[in-house]
Fold these 2 entries.
Entry 1:
Amino acid sequence: MAPSSTSSYTVLSIRIDQPQTQPVPLQYITEMSDTLTEKFGVSSHALQLLAAKVNPLVLYWMIPKSVVPFVSSGLHDHLDYLKDKGVAEVAMYPNTIFFSNGDLNVGSFALLSKKAEETIASIDSEKVLKHVYEQKDSLQAEYNKLKSSDKRFSDELKILKLKYDNLCEEFERKTFIHEAEEKMEQLQITLTDSISEFKKLALYTKQDKAEDGDKTPSLAEVFTPPDFAARVPTFLTNMEVYRVKLEETYKEWCQSVGSLDSKKDLQIKQLNVDLSDLQSRLEIKSQAMEILKEENRVVLKQYRQLKAKNEKDGAGLAHGAIPDPLETDPANIANCFQETLDGASQAKCSPCTSLPSPMYYAHATSDNNNIYVGGGVSPDKDAIHQVYRYTIQEDKWSILPLPSQYYSIPQVVGGRVTLFGGRDMKSGKVTGQVSTFHEEDDTWKDVYPNMLVARTRPAVVPHNDDVIVAGGKGEDTTVVLDDIEVLNIVDSKWAKLAVQLPKPMWGISATASTKSFHIVGYNGVDNHCYNDAYTIAIDHITYASALDQQQSSKGTVKAQNPWVSLPDAPLWYSALVPTSSPPVILGGENKNGEVVATAAIYDQATQLWRQIDSVTLPTNVAYTAAALAGKNSIIVIGGCTDTKTTNAASSTSLTKVTKVEFEAVKSNN
């Protein structure tokens, strides 16, 4: 909006303290203009160069009175800057002298002020300023329009980019890019038109005015010297730079869109490759399983034929022959489960005091009075290092002193709980250490020598004066072991067996009875859980047998492979009841992936596994631990309710402890 009169303006003079004999250098005018607009906080349209003279160089600026306070403040703040630039005098009409080198007195300043006033009066300022402001407003409107278009275009780009994330087909993406290109072309046309109009206005000369009969002063007439036209190319260059930068931004965005699309295609291709590879591996595994099952059926058939031949010939089972591994003691705990199937007894479940911390995948052992639990996994990081003791009669838990190893297998050996293998508490490395707890000293001691091979997660099964240790993971935990070593607690010596496990195993569920050693479930070299079941006559894997095998040069026992393969168990991740023969398993996951609360027993008559519906735990549970609590009872400890992932098992691990007691059914007679 143009001002109403020249009284709304004042005059600022700046004198350069050096004689000038040439026309006013444009760089002084430009530099002073930039100083006022950039350093003094005044917008460029508020300042108009009124006049300039030489000898010495004096510049006169016409300033709206509304911005005088800002200019005054800026001048006071930057006097040192102006002096460094060679400015010798700064004064503002009618009576303000900011500083002077001493040549300007009050009289000369008044004369200067009067001359400035006459200069202003000699110009039809209102008309000039009106024209200038109209042109300025027009240019400002065009600039605002361009700026608004730029903002709208940026907003549209953001919206289009969000839409792209949901596009799935090539046709939609190309349509989108085409629309963006059209908008870019429209913006370029607008910029070009604006530049042309501005250039036309800037080059409007006296001759053009005369031809048009226009008496309005041109821009060149208002500005003396006519620097405005000289600065037009710079403005046009800046506008072109802006247009090029906007175009480059658009191209970069298009490239990023293409990059995202290519990356998405590569990910889809990789997923298809991974899926195909997985399907191939599943097919190979399925074929391998069928081959193994067929081999098991052949071995079982051979076993039955040899057994029938031995019975017909009246031959006994000599050392090294295929035994009847399921021959059992009538007092075995498995009979309690068998009797519930026959209706002769019933199982009663009752809750006990909970574990101090939730735990699954633990191992339990008992000495008739106490049950010891350790080697498990828990969301409580301290719990994995502890060994817990449960006093059966008092229904009370306590914690033993911290041992020097964890993830160890606890077993009662010689009346004392003893830890086998696991990991060293300080270094975390797999260890072969054997530690025994002494109640009287409340300490762990190295009563027995270390195992021949350091291992973690092996099967550890006591039998009379022997402790059988089989499989596990070695010091290099990528190596799964298949060897067996035996500790004789009388001689306190280890011996390695020539007989090996049917295959490399770790995390093995194993137990021994008076005549048999059973395996029901384990983890393989691929870290998958298997429900395979094997059995062997205990005489093949004792300490005495190991000594005999070491003295034998022919290795007949190893060649015969005395292991007998049983049908696969119906459950995975189950607890194998200690000393049970035929083997009995509790809880676990069925073939449908469901965690259950039932039990199963191997039926010798049918040579099949039978589910025991009459024994049902109070909670569906897997990875639980079981220990004997007496002649006719067991304690079931911890476990988890979800086996899908390690995190799921940890988050659903239990503190629940249940006692299962078997009672004879009273006769009605």
Entry 2:
Amino acid sequence: MDIRKFFKGTLKRKKESSSESDEEKKIERSLSQNSLAQAGSSKVENIPEDKDVCCNDLGKWVGRTSLMTTSQKLDMLKRCWVPPESYDFVKDAEAANLKLIFCGTHDLPLRGKENHEGILEDLLILRIESGEQDLKQHLQYGKKNAMYTSPQIQNEIIDLCGLVVKNEIIQVVKKAYAYSVMADESCDIAGKEQLSIGIRFYDESKNMIREEFLGFVELIAMDANTIASEIDKFLENAGLEPDRCIGQGYDGCSTMAGSIGGVQKKLREKYKKALYFYCASHRLNLVVNDLNQVPEIRNTIAKYSGILEPVANALQSKTIDMYTCTNHIKRIISVIKDHRGNADRESQNILDISYRTAAAIGTDLQIPRTVGRQQHRSNHPAESVCDFWKRSVIIPYLDSLISALEQRFSNDHLPAFSLMSLHPSSMLNMKLVDFKEKSQDFCQYYDLPLFEHEAELWYKLWKDKGKQSEDLEKLDFTDVLKEANTFFPATRKAIIISLSQPCTTSNIERSFSTLRRVKTWFRSTMTENRLNGLCMLSVHRKIVKEKKEIVQEVLKRFCEEPRRLIVK
């Protein structure tokens, strides 16, 4: 600490109306009151206080120098107390630190109405009652400037926990060849707009796709300039290279997706390769909304919801890639088109089920009566019940479903979707010349000139394997990547780019559930740093539990900060 601040008294010095000995007694009386910890009710052996420690501990006199005489200040400078070399600074902080991390990873509030009423304080008392004598002695007899339980220390440790976990993820991202940024916005309980930012990349050390939440940013405005600036600042502070950003994943609102003034357009001015990907989960939801335009089936989607529901669940997976997502949507469209081509058969199957249901509840299916002037529904000409419901409900429903799927899941990004031709099931369905021609799209866009020399070898490699098309379709892109690790460096980079492209923002939206658990009505005034630290601990609790060195890194950084307590 700056010794000049020590001599600069913050309180007005009182007039010396008594002798120096009376003043010293008053000082010692005030120092003897230890109000920081009253944990446990059982007695422990008294720990003798060193007189030099009590009177010459510099930290205890900060803000109270008006009570000291000039001779005491000079004596403080000559004989200032310094902890012995055996003093364990980390051990004092570790006890409270571990309890704090426990509360953070389990979404528990640390403090109650008063500072000494919270879960953190109760956990410390529980440890003391379980026989933790070191902790008990520390809280009862430790120095006031080294308790490590104050709200300020809690906020500092929480902030450090969030930063250490975030840096742990960022270091892995920096080793990846490519990454994509994802973002979504929600309002917290205090009415503040929180922008959740995450990242998607391929972790080569674990051979898996990872989507990780990196934190919240409070938005002061909801326009495209503000959001784009905050995302850019976030990535810049994280030290991520713009050239490695190959994708942006957002929802489809005009502020984010606008092709002229949207967030994705503004970020592409700096992140040249970062194509915008419309969240597939949002698109699927809009498909269902489009189907509701048919009034008769607005609340009765049953048969085909069984097809769409697994897709919605699959799209929420962190490891799904663009190839798997697109191919499955194509299969769904193919099946529905087959049903549309055999509308008579499908209509009869649906009506057979309807007849059985009607018989079970004691009713019958009939053609609605026809009137000359119909206002709320069409008078479809029909000779039978099956014909009427086929023309009025089933065919409009199938046409709407096919149209919505094709429109919402069209291949808008030629360079990105051309990467899917690297998968052997797609590649072997075309001639070598066509494959080379299609590969030009991503080679030029992603700057992979060496792939032109590998294209023929890559094609021949899978051709010579002689696998059936059914077996090739079962291969994930991560399995295909293993074949390219040794002799196909450019192909390997292209596949990693494809794996890093965002399919959905589902993982980012999960962070909003954490936001609502952490920032409640009773905790609505917490600062942004505290909110980010607690949410990082909650979302990444698995990382915190698996990597014990994270706790040690938090303690290391905490101990490196300047403290009132000076350690040799």
